[in-house]
Every structure is written in C-alpha cells, then in structure tokens.
Inverse folding.
C-alpha cells in the first residue's frame, strides 16, 4: 500500500528536525495558491508585464530565509504566513510601478489593492453559483456588465472576506489568521457579506 503524502504539518515538523527535503517541499507546496492570490489582486495595468510566478518566487525566497524563525514561534498557520510574505511583495510591486509619484512618508502604511474587473466578475459568479432559483439565474444573466459597481458598493470588510473565501479559497481557519479575528467572527462576517451582496444585486436588478 503506497504511503500517504505528508501534509503541511508533518513537513513542518520534519523541517524543524533538520530535514532539508521537507523544508524545500513545504515551501513550494502552496505555490499555486500563492499564484492565484497574486493574480486576483494584480492591477490590470501590470498584468501584461508582471508574471505572478515571479512575485511568488520572491516571496518563497523570503520564506526560506525566515522559516527558522517561523518554526520557533508558529505565530499563525503556515499558509497565511506565506500569503503575508507574498502580499508584502505585491504591495511593493504596486508602489514601485504605480504609486512612485505619491508614495506615503509612512511606507509601512497598507496599500489598498483593488480587484480587477475579471476578478470581480469571477467573485460574483462563484458567490451566485451557490444559488439555483430562477431569480438568482436572472441576476447572474443580467448583472454581468455591472457587477464591478455593485461590488464597489460593498464595505471593505465585506469585500475582503468574500475575496478570501471565494477567490483565494482560504479555509475559515486561514481566513481568521489573515484577518486577525476568530473563526466564529469569520463565519458571521462571511454570512453578512453574502446577504449584503445579494441585497445589492437584487436592488440593482429591480432598478433596471
């Protein structure tokens, strides 16, 4: 019977014990998830000249340098830690290419990264695909061209949790780590965000 592939926790344990192969394996196993995260948030003005793989590779190099410190402290689950490194690289990329003329003196201040039109459309499709009533199918069909404006009307917290859960496909535990809130709070925020998005979509359809 073939041996099961080690999960992330097992690889981390081996890496902590000095296993070089496990160390390498745990760093690259989430590469595709990180690429998806970068692609979701990459400004369309950069998409033609920036490969998400390059951003991820830089983040993984940062992770390799910081892995020993992470293993000693384990401040958050592993993937949210990796994601934060990629997020910081992505922010710096946007600052360097798009915000050079209006950089904040406080460079540590977070930079808001907005969804591309394609990501906004994908988010709406994934959220609405969970529904199957005739009215929901009508919403999906008639609001494609206006979904960008509808999502922009959502509060930042609502949009953020929907992106994490539906586009980046983070688990509740991972989302809680990224947002710095409890898993129960994630579930509550997610449910409310879905309700608000649906209400906005229906309002838009009725106005039409």
């Amino acid at each position: 019977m073939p041996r099961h592939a080690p999960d992330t926790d097992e690889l981390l344990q081996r890496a902590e014990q000095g296993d070089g192969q496990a160390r390498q394996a745990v760093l690259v196993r989430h590469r595709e998830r990180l690429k998806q995260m970068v692609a979701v948030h990459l400004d369309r003005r950069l998409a033609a000249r920036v490969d998400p793989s390059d951003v991820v590779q830089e983040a993984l190099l940062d992770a390799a340098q910081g892995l020993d410190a992470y293993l000693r402290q384990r401040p958050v689950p592993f993937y949210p830690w990796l994601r934060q490194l990629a997020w910081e690289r992505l922010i710096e990329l946007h600052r360097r290419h798009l915000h050079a003329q209006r950089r904040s003196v406080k460079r540590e201040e977070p930079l808001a990264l907005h969804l591309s039109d394609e990501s906004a459309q994908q988010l709406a499709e994934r959220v609405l695909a969970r529904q199957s009533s005739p009215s929901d199918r009508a919403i999906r069909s008639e609001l494609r061209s206006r979904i960008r404006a509808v999502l922009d009307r959502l509060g930042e917290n609502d949009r953020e949790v929907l992106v994490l859960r539906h586009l980046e496909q983070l688990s509740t535990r991972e989302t809680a780590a990224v947002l710095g809130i409890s898993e129960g709070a994630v579930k509550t925020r997610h449910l409310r965000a879905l309700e608000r998005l649906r209400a906005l979509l229906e309002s838009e359809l009725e106005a039409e």
About this structure: The longest helix spans residues 183-207. The two ends are 60 Å apart (CA to CA).
